[in-house]
Design a protein that fits this description.
The chain is mainly alpha-helical and 399 residues long. It has 15 helices and three strands. The protein has one domain (2-27, 42-387). Helix content is 68%, strand content 3%. Strands 1-2-3 form a three-stranded antiparallel beta sheet, with helices on one face. Helix 4 runs antiparallel to helix 5 and helix 7 (163-180) packs antiparallel against helix 8. The two termini are 35 Å apart.
Length: 399
């Protein structure tokens, strides 16, 4: 078991340090000429965020994860999440970028509440399941009550037009409910309804609709037109979606097997938008080639395997479900980001965990790792999956 925790810690630390190196390259369009430019660079800011995030992750790892399921704390965390998500729309507090309201401006830095919301809802879903026990197989306790809480947060995320965070939240919470033993007769209709509502919202938002139309045209050789407020706006939305996908593809092609060399990417300088945030993976592909991208994918595989191993060896159901949820939370974001940047999935804003520039994602990703470490520290000799008493959440028939 000790080797698992060593692999997890080493992998995460490597990804975080690697992220600083890549951010330094992705944000360097020309040449830093003096020390003041260096201090104001994104790489230095990312180093500061990493120090803070490591401190938070360490503190969380030393905290008993059982404290997170206290009813009073559950309610407080949910209310704080709702308030923070609502504050992004408050004049003078919320910060808008390209039509999206996703940030709170705290003067010295900007906080993205959606990152906090994803982590909190994972914890609350697991705490709720632990609270209701076998009653999770009932429609009311297994679907309706958790669905109401998740739906409230999802509605606020969609109001921000943060489709990426919404997808991650729905996938992770759905996985937790499935692992907890919610009946498929209840879970499948709820999942289908959630997918249909998400697709409907994406088709209503012009920029998201343009991305879907471009993706369909590119994949299936169709000629669908984008319907928007005006023909000019439709062309702009579709051109923006096409440009980012094509430039990302060119970055991978230019990189080849071994890359063009560190700091030598041309796409990041002139052609590829968001090269240091959501589209940092193509920058890795261009500068370090296929070898570099496969190394990163391998690291995420190690992270996933380590997280699942910790979950399986947890001392109770709450720890096991938290381990599963947090592992899926980190791995699904990596998978979606890589899928988007390689044109497997439609374009959407999802950061690459531990690597993309941004303090909020780094902070809450390392907090998630801290909870995994706490679950490991409290794990007993008998894994939760083998010691659960009746009803056995993972083995009870679901239909």
């Amino acid at each position: 078991m000790r080797i698992i925790i060593n692999v997890l810690a080493t992998t995460v630390f490597f990804l975080a340090l690697f992220g600083i190196v890549v951010v330094a390259s992705a944000t360097e369009k020309g040449t830093i000429t003096d020390f003041s430019q260096l201090l104001s660079s994104n790489a230095v800011k990312q180093v500061l965020w990493l120090v803070i995030a490591l401190a938070v992750g360490f503190c969380v790892s030393q905290t008993n994860y059982q404290r997170f399921k206290q009813p009073g704390l559950m309610l407080a965390m949910f209310l704080i999440t709702v308030v923070l998500l609502a504050l992004v729309f408050a004049p003078g507090i919320g910060h808008e970028v390209k039509g999206s309201h996703r940030w709170i401006n705290l003067r010295f830095f900007k906080l993205q509440p959606s990152e906090f919301a994803k982590l909190v809802m994972i914890i609350l879903t697991c705490a709720w399941i632990d609270h209701v026990g076998w009653r999770v197989q009932r429609l009311l306790e297994g679907i309706l009550w958790p669905g109401l809480a998740i739906g409230t947060v999802v509605a606020l995320l969609l109001a921000e037009t943060d489709v990426g965070a919404t997808m991650v939240l729905l996938i992770v919470c759905g996985t937790i409910l499935f692992a907890a033993g919610v009946k498929l007769l209840h879970l499948i209709p709820a999942g289908v309804l959630g997918i249909l509502l998400l697709v409907a919202v994406m088709l209503v938002i012009p920029s998201r609709r343009a991305r879907i139309v471009h993706f369909a045209n590119a994949k299936f050789n169709t000629q669908y037109a984008v319907v928007a407020e005006s023909e000019e706006k439709a062309k702009q939305d579709q051109e923006r979606a096409r440009h980012q996908a094509e430039q990302s593809k060119l970055a991978f092609i230019n990189g080849g097997a071994w890359g063009v060399g560190y700091m030598q990417s041309m796409q990041k300088k002139y052609y590829l938008p968001e090269a240091h945030t959501d589209f940092i993976f193509p920058t890795i592909g261009e500068e370090l080639g296929l070898a570099g991208t496969l190394l990163i994918v391998f690291c995420y595989v190690l992270l996933t395997v380590s997280g699942i191993a910790i979950a399986i060896n947890a001392r109770d159901v709450f720890g096991m479900l938290m381990g599963v949820g947090l592992t899926v939370f980190l791995s699904i974001q990596a998978a979606l980001n890589i899928g988007v940047t390689t044109k497997i999935l439609p374009n959407k804003g999802i950061p690459l965990p531990f690597i993309s520039y941004g303090g909020s994602n780094l902070l809450f990703s390392l907090a998630a790792v801290g909870i995994l470490l706490s679950i490991y520290r409290k794990s007993g000799p008998e894994p939760a999956a083998r010691t659960m008493t009746r009803p056995k959440l993972l083995t009870t028939p679901r239909i």
